[in-house]
Write the structure tokens for this entry.
Amino acid sequence: MPVVPSQKGDGKNRKGPWSTQADQSENEKERRRGDGSDGNDITGHKWELCNVTAGPDYIPCLDNEKALRHIETRHYQHRERHCPEESPTCLVPLPKGYRHSIEWPKSRDRIWYNNVPHIKLAVVKGHQNWVKVTGEYLSFPGGGTQFIHGALHYIDFIQKSVPDIAWGKRTRVILDVGCGVASFGGYLFERDVLAMSFAPKDEHEAQVQFALERGIPAISAVMGSQRLPFPSRVFDMVHCARCRVPWHADGGRLLLELNRVLRPGGYFVWSATPVYQKLKEDVEIWKAMSALTTSMCWDLFTIKKDRVNSVGAAIYRKPISNECYDHRKHHSPPMCKEDDDPNAAWYIPLQTCMHRVPVDGAERGSQWPEEWSNRLRQPPYWLNSSEIGIYGKPAPADFTADYEHWKRVVSKSYLSGLGISWSKVRNVMDMRAVYGGFAAALKDLKVWVMNVVNIDAPDTLPIIYERGLFGIYHDWCESFSTYPRTYDLLHADHLFSRLKKRCKIASVMAEVDRILRPSGKLIVRDESNVVGEIESWLRSMHWEVRLTFSKDQEGILCAEKTDWRPEAYSDSS
């Protein structure tokens, strides 16, 4: 198997160092206020099953029962992340009768019932064509609360309402709030659009788990008391179809968070009963939303009725200049303080304020990205040649070199040299994305890639969004906000050598096992000694190590998770 050399570098040689999400968030927290090395040898580590109420659906940072006893609920804090003090080192059990997932695109329409054995949504939402129980399957007719007659008609309805949206060209990456089973995002793939869909782990049992099992990107998250884990000004559109979010409450704090992550000139599509019904509550909400959006300088671009689904949508546009902000009669909501960092997003409390729109032509957000798919290949206009990139070249050249590197790695090594059947791969995660080059190199495959930018790494996530990909901030010392068994392939390029300095590797390996499906693949590229250590951990979990190779102190490993689970349960998790 050809082994393509690794890229090394962490941005230390950059003129003007890259900020990290940890730095940005910590600095923001400090402004508002006015080494955990593992040390354990893996020998003798005894794997046990997690002894938790959530059982096979365990998400450690969302199912922390000890913390949740003391959490307020007014702003949905109980649906936010509350990680245990010690990250779990146990393995999550499989549901009884679990079977390897159905392949995409068939999975969009049906999944194995035993893999996600929850029927509450089928009972409550079956009449709206969300999900139905069909023998040994759960089937998904493609409907939703606002598009009972199918998502594709609804998607085309939005396009006809505002032709400038231009699915798959001008509009490439969107945020879908309160996504349900994510049929909207699932059918947007047919328009070459990526949707970051999210919904809380709440009484709508397993909605995000359904989405991921179907092969549709989604995370468990909530519009609550904290910023979403995304940079500012990155989504081309934000969509809410009866998402049950009180946008007008608390001075519009939640809508202002959407304003933070929406690109200047981007659209907010709000399809909800206050737009088209005249019940007293709907009229009051519409009046409050009208006042709020006007004060936020959002332009009510159009209101359209979808007569097939008997619904309507109000479509707003975020301003591309500060003129309206400067001429408002009432400065409510206020503008954020100049030193408020809009990109700080890791456990940052929400504020009721707006950031000014960038107007300097060289600043990110002052121009719309190039049309898809040109934006995938072109360095963003705001990457400056005077800045040094992560790998030591001027930033635009660094971006291009990274893209070429990963195209070589994928074509010469990953596609044919690792024994991976890519037709069985749908949900992919790059656990340490830099510029998103790995994801970009997979463009022509029927996969989607969740790009994770670690909070202690240079903050390159805005670059990933600018090129028409998506991702999220995360700290791998904590669990990820996804259900167990939701990814087909995990990719870790020089991740574990960095994590060893501050995380317990046993808990990181337990998390890798948790989020990967049985028969899923893990690709590790790292220092040879680290690759050897990871191999030992994987064998201790009875994974099948398919390939290891080492040269010049650099190694690569490809392993497959098996169905093995321990027999004993831990005392407590």
